[in-house]
Write a structure and sequence with these properties.
This protein has helices at residues 3-18, 91-107, 168-174, and strands at residues 24-26, 39-49, 58-63, 68-73, 76-88, 110-113, 117-130, 139-152, 158-161. The chain has 3 helices and 9 strands; from the N terminus they run αβββββαββββα. The protein is of the alpha+beta class. The strands form 2 sheets. Strands 1-2-5-8-7-6 form a 6-stranded mixed β-sheet. The chain has a 3-stranded antiparallel β-sheet with strand order 3-4-9, with no helix packed on it. It has one domain (3-174): 2-Layer Sandwich (STM4215-like). A hairpin with a 3-residue loop joins strand 6 and strand 7.
Length: 176
C-alpha cells in the first residue's frame, strides 16, 4: 500500500477516534452535503512539496549476509493540507466541537503511521478561521490542518552485489 494512503487513513482514523466517530474524508473538489449533525468533514488532501528539504542524495540498504544492496533516490517530502469543516445544529454544539478540535492539536502533535514512524500534525488555520459559504440553517466552522513532510519514494530501485569479485591470489600474496 502506498505511504500517502496510509498517512491519510491514519489521520481519518485518529479524527474518528478523538473528535467524532462519523468523520469522513471528501476529495478536494467534490461537492458534499451534510445530512446528519454534528458532522466532521476532512476535505483534501492538497499536496505541496517541502522544496527546501529536497535532496539529491541516495538511500542505501545493504544485506551483508546475501552480499547485496538496494538503493533509490531520497524521497520527496510533501505537506498534506486538509480543510476541516464541522457542522452542528446549535451554536453551543459548534463551540463544543471547536474546543474539542483545539484540544486535539495539543494532545496529538504527531500522527503515528504503522511501522513507518510519526509525522507532525500542525494547525494552519484554527477552526472558525476559514470563511465558507453556508447555504443552510446549520452552524458551521472551518479550519485547516496539515500533516507535514510525508515521504513519497521513487519506485526506481537499483539492486546489485556488494562484492563484485574477490581475488584470492592477491590476498595470499599479501600474507607471504
Amino acid at each position: 500500500m502506498e505511504l500517502l494512503r496510509e498517512v491519510v487513513e491514519s489521520l481519518v482514523r485518529l479524527v474518528k477516534s478523538e473528535i467524532h466517530t462519523g468523520a469522513v474524508l471528501v476529495s478536494v473538489d467534490d461537492m458534499f452535503e451534510v445530512t446528519d449533525t454534528p458532522s466532521v468533514v476532512l476535505q483534501g488532501p492538497t499536496l505541496t512539496e517541502d522544496g527546501d528539504r529536497r535532496s539529491q542524495g541516495r538511500v542505501l540498504a545493504k544485506d551483508v549476509e546475501a552480499l547485496t544492496f538496494e538503493q533509490c533516490s531520497r524521497p520527496r517530502l510533501y505537506h498534506l493540507d486538509f480543510d476541516v469543516i464541522v457542522t452542528t445544529g446549535t451554536e453551543s454544539d459548534l463551540l463544543d466541537l471547536i474546543g474539542k478540535m483545539a484540544r486535539f492539536y495539543q494532545e496529538h502533535p504527531l500522527l503515528t503511521v504503522s511501522e513507518h514512524g510519526s509525522l507532525n500534525i500542525a494547525e494552519l488555520v484554527p477552526l472558525g478561521g476559514l470563511k465558507r459559504v453556508n447555504l443552510s440553517n446549520l452552524r458551521q466552522a472551518a479550519g485547516r490542518v496539515r500533516v507535514e513532510d510525508c515521504p513519497i519514494f521513487s519506485q526506481i530501485v537499483e539492486q546489485g552485489k556488494l562484492v563484485r569479485e574477490v581475488s584470492v591470489e592477491t590476498i595470499v600474496e599479501a600474507y607471504q
